[in-house]
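Hi, here's the filled form for the chain we discussed.

Project: internal
Contact: R.S.
Residues: 113
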Amino acid sequence: MITTVGTEEQANLLAEELVERRQSCCVNILPVQRSVYRWQGKVCEDSEYMLVIKTTEEQYEAVEASIKELHQYDLPEILAFEIGRGEPAFLQWIAGCVGGSGEEEAGEPEAGE
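And the returned structure, exactly as it came back:
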């Protein structure tokens, strides 16, 4: 899934909450990008941070609800993409660390992986 936010503070808050709530195993915060878009009849231009949210299809509704709860935009970008293929152990790690009891999962990748 992806979403965009207007500030680094908002990006950090959203990323930390999604991981803390076990709705995502990892959120990548991409550096500032320039967005040009049409909103309420005007062409607008802003700086934004993009968040790449690693989660499962089963967690989609929970992640969407959290984004809507925490986001500052009236209409946050929330897009999900199906994964056609992926490294099996990595996909297993994602499935194992979202949802559940909050217990730490064995075999988690090292920081930065």
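Let me know if anything looks off before we file it.
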